[in-house]
Amino acid sequence: MKYGSLVFETNEFLIIKKYQEMNYTIEDYAHKNVLDVLTQNMTSALCLNKVDIPYDIITMYTTIKVSSAFGIRQTFQVVPPNEVNLKENKISVISSLGASVIGRAQGDRISYGLPGDTVSLVIEKVKQPKTANKTTTKGDMTEEVNIH
Q1: Which residue, among 16, 10, 107, 95, has the nearest Cα to 56 in the 3D structure?
Q2: Could you read off the pLDDT of 97-117 as tens digits, one per residue?
Q3: CATH number, domain 7-132
Q4: Is-contact 76 140, C-beta < 8 A?
Q5: Where is the signal peptide (predicted)?
Q6: Helical axes 10-22 vs 29-42, angle rounded to 10°
Q7: Extents of the domains making up the chain
């Protein structure tokens, strides 16, 4: 992990904990494992004020692009569970993929999939929402960072 641990905005950290407690729906064994790892990682997470969150951290409403060495490319937005819309590539923060990326940074690698059938994904691009604070944007323009 780029910052040594997951990084969360303090209020968002509490909201995600609440989602985990309220809606502990398990899709499958791999999803349970991802949520367990997220819970464990959150115990040592760095919680910051909104204005101090680095520009490349994945928060709720961040749009990200992940890719693999095998040609997998996926762009999606991490959203609260009640705003999921797969046609618009909006995935829940507590879904397997959402829980794998939340709090991580551009350039981080994640393992995604079922045990024995996982793929290594790189967080290639992070685009903050237009409502992000001034440290995550340049003026009124959304900050978008690319890895080469």
Answers
A1: 107
A2: 998 999 999 999 998 877 788
A3: 3.10.50.30
A4: no
A5: none
A6: 140
A7: 7-132
